């Protein structure tokens, strides 16, 4: 009996030790797994995503304030300025300085002073988020009365008025169709150019748009240290903006002034070329518009006027009118290059010619008989060049 009890006791002890050993192994594996997960996450945060996380932490501590760069001047052929820059004031808002409910009240007040819709202000704040430490520009070219009204109304938390460079067209509406105008970058512009800061100004028309990469320059930053609540502590430094490069045109300011004076804002166009080089010395279109309107917030009334019946946006020197008899030179070149006509070819002319059910008439009402290129150009024969155009086809002319 004693031997049996001893054996049973020994077996029970071994089983207990085995269960403890198994639990120990399970606990050890569990602890090792948890430690491995923590180690893996630590490695991921510090090594794999380290650069990104350091940048986020730095942004929490340092607030970059955009500094607008001077756009490059646009000059006429003699160096006279057609588009330049001037110092102005702009309003920036810091979203995290107020709650969304407080911004509702502030937007009401700003809307009355600046005469812009309240929803437009709130939309810009919502776009970057109310917890963003990055400022949002809501207004450019603040006028003296608006500045006084804001100063006398008491301090608005999260509002800062900053001096910055602003586009200026010293000659008003002169050559506006050539120069174009500027405006804030659209959502598509920002997606296509991630390096653009919010509120980036880009060319929207004319030379301002065509040569935007040359003219716009690179914006800088003022680096401000802030605490965890977004309160400014001190300025750490400044990344200087890089001004855009100047651009000299072939336009002659005096010739442009003379052309627009004769046009007198009527519907039409005037173009003056240098016959030796083909340089455009003047290009005027009427009615015209003042590009200075777009250096600030344009009102709905002003925008409606620009969209009116006179179509001041339409560049009548380049758009809106058929090319007329000057295009006969292109038709003649296509006819000879096609091999179907030679410089000595002749064609009969008529009083009119019917194309697609529409009658096109000869100048003076009658035909000129059988003529060649020299006489066709001299009398500007419509029927001669219509026949040639039909014979060679649109692809050859193109």
In short:
With 398 residues, the chain is α+β, with helices and mostly antiparallel strands. The chain has helices at 2-48, 50-61, 100-114, 118-128, 144-152, 176-179, 187-192, 206-210, 212-215, 253-263, 300-306, 328-337, 373-379, 382-392, 394-397, and strands at residues 62-67, 74-75, 81-93, 136-139, 159-168, 182-184, 201-203, 220-226, 232-239, 247-248, 268-273, 280-286, 346-348, 352-355, 358-361, 370-372. Strand 8 and strand 9 (232-239) form a beta hairpin.
Helix/sheet category: alpha+beta
Return the CATH class of the largest domain. Answer: Alpha Beta
CATH topology of the largest domain: Penicillin-binding protein 2a (Domain 2)
The figure for the number of domains is: 4
- Give the DSSP E fraction (strand runs of 2 or more residues): 15-25%
Main β-sheet description: 5 strands, mixed
Average pLDDT across residues? Answer: 85
């Amino acid at each position: 009996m004693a031997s049996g009890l001893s054996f049973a006791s020994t077996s029970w002890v071994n089983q207990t030790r085995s269960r403890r050993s198994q639990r120990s192994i399970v606990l050890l594996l569990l602890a090792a797994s948890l430690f491995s997960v923590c180690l893996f996450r630590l490695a991921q945060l510090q090594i794999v995503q380290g650069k990104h996380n350091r940048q986020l932490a730095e942004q929490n501590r340092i607030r970059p304030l955009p500094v607008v760069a001077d756009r490059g001047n646009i000059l006429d052929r003699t160096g006279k300025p057609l588009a330049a820059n001037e110092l102005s004031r702009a309003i920036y808002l810091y979203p995290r300085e107020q709650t969304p409910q407080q911004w509702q009240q502030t937007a009401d007040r700003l809307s009355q002073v600046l005469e812009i819709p309240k929803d437009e202000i709130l939309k810009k704040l919502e776009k970057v988020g109310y917890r963003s430490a990055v400022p949002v520009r809501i207004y450019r070219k603040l006028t003296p009365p608006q500045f006084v009204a804001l100063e006398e109304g008491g301090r608005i938390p999260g509002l800062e008025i900053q001096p910055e460079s602003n586009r200026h067209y010293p000659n008003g509406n002169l050559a506006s169709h050539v120069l174009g105008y500027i405006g804030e970058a659209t959502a598509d512009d920002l997606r296509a150019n991630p390096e653009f800061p919010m509120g980036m100004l880009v060319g929207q028309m004319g030379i301002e748009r065509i040569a935007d990469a040359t003219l716009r320059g690179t914006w800088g930053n003022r680096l401000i240290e802030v605490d965890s609540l977004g309160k400014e502590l001190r300025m750490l430094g400044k990344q200087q903006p890089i001004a855009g490069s100047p651009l000299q045109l072939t336009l002659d300011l005096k010739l442009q002034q003379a052309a627009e004076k004769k046009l007198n804002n009527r519907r039409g166009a005037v173009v003056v070329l240098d016959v030796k080089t083909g340089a455009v010395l003047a290009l005027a279109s009427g009615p015209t518009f003042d590009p200075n309107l777009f250096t600030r917030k344009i009102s709905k009334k002003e925008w409606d006027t620009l969209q009116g019946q006179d179509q001041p946006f339409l560049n009548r020197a380049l758009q809106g009118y058929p090319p007329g008899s000057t295009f006969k030179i292109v038709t003649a070149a296509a006819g000879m290059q096609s091999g179907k006509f030679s410089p000595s070819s002749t064609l009969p002319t008529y009083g009119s010619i019917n194309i697609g059910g529409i009658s096109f008439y000869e100048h003076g009402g009658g035909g000129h008989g059988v003529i060649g290129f020299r006489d066709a150009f001299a009398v500007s024969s419509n029927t001669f060049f219509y026949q040639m155009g039909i014979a060679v086809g649109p692809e050859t002319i193109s």
